[in-house]
Amino acid sequence: QAQAVPVAIDANRPGPVVNRDIFGQFAEHLGYGIYGGVWVGPDSPIPNVRGIRTDVVTALKALKVPNVRWPGGCFADEYHWRDGIGPAAQRAPGINANWGDAVEPNTFGTHEFMDFVDQLGTEAYLSINVGSGTVKEASDWLGYMTGPTTTALGKERAANGHPEPYKVKYLGLGNESWGCGGSMRPEFYADQMKLYARYVRNFNPAQKGPNAMQRIAVGPDGAKTEYTETVMKAWKEKTWAWDLEGISLHNYTVGGWPPHLPSTGFGEADYATLVKETLGMDNLIATHSAIMDKYDPEKKINLAVDEWGAWLAPAPGTNPGFLIQQNTMRDAVIAALNINIFARHADRVRLANIAQMVNVLQAMILTDGPKMLLTPTYHVFRMYTPFQDATLLPATFEAGVYRAGDVTLPRIDAAAVKAKDGQIWLALTNLDPHKPAEIVPEVAGRRARAASGEVLTAPNVNSHNTFDAPNTVAPKAISAQARGGRLTLRLPPKSVTVVRLDF
Ligand code: AHR
């Protein structure tokens, strides 16, 4: 039996705030991500509110989703917002050329997305079309969404049912402009980006001053640093005429391109490979942050990891253009490790969006007609809700390693925070699929008397939920009391635990 591992939490050295926006979601027009997953239409027998699935909204509300990025992804750079407004019967269908040439019915457009945002009680993160659109098109979109009804665009919005201006918290200035968003040289993108940063304005009076819309420029593709350097240099040399609040980083856990590792039925070698790759997110953020520090030592610019997650082989028998994959206990571990990394980089990472919310890649929810299931990743997001806007506390531990073949991984990972209500929460991941771990939380100067919260584990790393067995991977309550002044927590193999410490 291995020795219990002390995890030292320093409550006297509070770190930065873990911005709740790191728990953001991403909903692209891709496969069943929107159509079927969120939107079923008002005439559907599937219970809905104005066409939006009630079961999906109810489930997502429990995650306290801070923001949703929409309409893409690659889709965003071919999206023309005028196709998605006005009476539904008059909206012209188009082709979703990025994702399987599916027919895009345009029945889910600006108003439907903002209704979804309202129903969820979240914030909008809009990605505008820089690849195939124009500055005027994007500027008109924001004019339509946020302008007063005394303007033609604001009047048109009111005529379409929403006199109040919409709130747009984040604006993405293009998507992957180094790839599907136009294959632009970084210098060319930086020049384009300045035009969008200047002319795409938010007129909502409620978004002046501290609530101002934040503009997120395209940043690095994984480890490549050209965009980071060029966009940050442009920002450093900016004039009064434009500004930025963030740059994006996209990085998936893939296991080699094109994605070929199966989402179910895999063995320990695949598990260890993908978990190791996930841990590379830490170094990636550190690398880009160091470049950003050269131009922005005050860390004004946010590094927004607005696409992350496991990207695996399409589930057998599904349309490969729809990016449908299952979600296992391995995905739960991947999610928890990424969240811990973002929290530890809270001084620079203040926005992140998992790809994607429903039915696409590492999803929270899978649907099949009227059926819905919650994935292991969903449960991790719900268990971590006390981390939203909490203060990071340094947590140090030495737990040794877990080895699988050539791959060596830390045995556990831990992150601690002081929540907004002053309570201390500890998140622990046991990466080892075979051995439990015993943890002794030590909070400087204070002895915890008890711990309570939830633990997520499963029979195997590849265990997953199905429509017939939706609770194979589901959290369970966990609690522990101090004995002889010492509080010990037992972490099952391959598990994610989030507990509150009581003193
Ligand atoms: O999330 C799927 C795709 O991955 C997005 O559309 C694109 O931005 C990225 O390459």
Automatic annotation (TrEMBL):
Its transmembrane ranges are none
Q: Which UniProt keywords apply?
A: Carbohydrate metabolism, Glycosidase, Hydrolase, Signal
Alphabetical list of SUPFAM superfamilies matching this protein: (Trans)glycosidases, Glycosyl hydrolase domain
- Spell out the InterPro entries in the cross-references: Alpha-L-AF_C, ASD1_cat, GH, Glyco_hydro_b
All residue ranges annotated as the Alpha-L-arabinofuranosidase C-terminal domain in the record: 306-495
A GO biological-process term = L-arabinose metabolic process
What's its EC?
3.2.1.55
Q: Which reaction does it catalyse?
A: Hydrolysis of terminal non-reducing alpha-L-arabinofuranoside residues in alpha-L-arabinosides
Q: Kindly list the GO molecular function terms attached to this UniProt entry.
A: alpha-L-arabinofuranosidase activity
**How the protein assembles, per its UniProt entry?**
Homohexamer; trimer of dimers.
Q: Which family does it belong to?
A: Belongs to the glycosyl hydrolase 51 family.
Q: What is this protein called?
A: non-reducing end alpha-L-arabinofuranosidase
Originating organism? Phenylobacterium deserti
Q: Taxonomic lineage of this organism?
A: Bacteria, Pseudomonadati, Pseudomonadota, Alphaproteobacteria, Caulobacterales
